[in-house]
Automatic annotation (TrEMBL):
One of its GO terms (cellular component) is nucleus. GO terms for biological process: regulation of transcription by RNA polymerase II. It comes from Exocentrus adspersus. GO terms for molecular function: double-stranded DNA binding. SUPFAM superfamilies: Ribonuclease H-like (SSF53098). Residues 115-270 form the DUF659 domain. This is DUF659 domain-containing protein.
Length: 421
């Protein structure tokens, strides 16, 4: 360590080493160091060394070499950690002996333990990546996507995704914040967005004028969140997701056919956690997959299940009627399969609403162009209008989401205007 005011003096442990004189200074008090600095011999050697190299002590040489090795080790650990994270490989895989030996052999580096990478390298890597994202976002207009979901423990988790808006389309989205909320309403979500953006861009550096699009679902509290954010971001336009509107149509269809919904639920329970029935099904119908298990939060899965039952209604009916069991699910399934209206409803759903899962899947494509999105939405609207019979529920739900689609188009035009401004 260099002593302030005397660069030729170095602290070597608990001793003082003079690089000019190349010797240790025997000193217990400061005046002894000052006395050495005033000697003619020392001053002459200092003058001579101004144009030449400075001699280092043995310990200093080892410390410099150690610092260099440590720096190389840190770089290797960060790059190794980045590669594993980018490839979605858990760091605990480094505990595998064959993998460690392979990396040590071909990388000529000692592989650190997973805990070391997680404690030291992962945080540095995270900060570097956040800085890269921040630099990219700060130079461009940007959009924000916020959505709330429930985890396996029933906790409310809200996520914030941010991405750039350019003339050639939206950029890659980045998840920059996740937080558990005690309750979900417009106040808590608005506060979360403000805090997340302030932390991401650093306080007092949020480019409010470049925040152009806020995308969310069409929940009532999210609409209020958009109104709250409009106060702080005057150029922002709130757009509700079109897929939520289409999913509401699918939910209306499910509610319109309660017997079909009950059949799907009952047959699902028949084969759930009963290996003997599953084995009987596979033996009787080889090559035919088990009845699907729709999940309400997975859009379009209920209609897919209805299509499956329409295609294999006779097979499923034959098998269920053969089961001799007093289970409530079996009894309910047998009753429903004997109702003629259920078979007719399944055929009707398949014929008139079978296109909805494909539309949802197509609109989920991240890189879908605006023109293709508009065409898909118009196709959906046209097919819904052609459904025979009482279709008021489709028309009403669709018209309720028509405003969101109009805002989507207006947003695109406004974005072009802002880019060319």
């Amino acid at each position: 360590m260099m002593i302030k005011g005397s660069p030729e003096l170095k602290l070597d442990g608990d001793k003082v080493f003079c690089t000019a004189c190349a010797k240790m200074i025997a000193c217990d008090k400061k005046f002894q160091v000052d006395q050495h600095l005033r000697t003619a011999s020392h001053n002459a050697k200092v003058h001579k060394l101004k144009s030449g190299p400075v001699q280092q002590s043995v310990r200093m040489s080892f410390d410099n070499a150690s610092d260099k090795t440590k720096s190389e080790k840190d770089v290797f650990n960060q790059e190794l950690c980045r590669a594993f994270v980018a490839a979605n490989i858990p760091l605990k895989k480094l505990q595998n002996q064959q993998l460690r030996e392979f990396l040590q052999k071909h990388c000529n580096q000692n592989i650190s333990d997973e805990s070391t990478l997680r404690k030291k390298s992962l945080q540095v890597l995270y900060e570097n990546v956040i800085q890269e994202i921040r630099t990219t976002i700060y130079k461009n207009n940007y959009y924000v996507i916020v959505d709330e979901s429930t985890d396996a423990c029933g906790r409310y988790i809200v996520h914030l995704i941010i991405g750039t808006l350019k003339e050639d389309g939206p950029g890659k989205p980045h998840l920059i914040a996740s937080k558990e909320l005690q309750k979900t309403n417009n106040v808590t979500v608005t506060r979360f967005i403000q805090q997340a953006l302030s932390k991401f861009f650093l306080p007092n550096q949020v480019p409010a004028e470049k925040f152009l699009v806020f995308l969310s679902d069409s929940a009532a509290y999210m609409v209020k969140v958009g109104q709250n954010l409009k106060i702080f971001y005057s150029n922002m336009v709130h757009v509700t997701c079109l897929l939520h509107g289409i999913n509401r149509v699918a939910e209306a269809i499910r509610m319109e056919y309660p017997l079909v919904n009950k059949l799907i639920s009952s047959v699902k329970k028949v084969f759930l956690k009963v290996p003997l029935r599953v084995q009987l099904y596979k033996e009787k119908f080889p090559g035919v997959s088990l009845p699907p298990e729709p999940v309400i939060t997975r859009w379009g899965t209920w209609i897919k299940a209805a299509i499956f039952y329409a295609d294999h209604f006779d097979l499923i009916k034959e098998l269920i009627l053969e089961i001799q069991d007093n289970s409530q699910c079996v009894i309910d399934s047998q009753k429903l399969l004997n109702i003629t209206a259920v078979a007719k409803d399944l055929v009707f759903i398949k014929t008139n609403f079978g296109f909805i899962p494909d539309i949802i899947l197509s609109l989920e494509n991240r890189y879908l162009s605006l023109r293709d999105s508009v065409n898909l939405v118009n196709t959906f609207s046209d097919k819904c209008k052609k459904v025979p019979g009482a279709i008021d529920f489709c028309g009403l739900v669709w018209m309720s989401e028509r405003l969101a689609f109009s805002i989507y188009v207006i947003t695109f035009k406004r974005f072009n205007y802002m880019c060319n401004k």
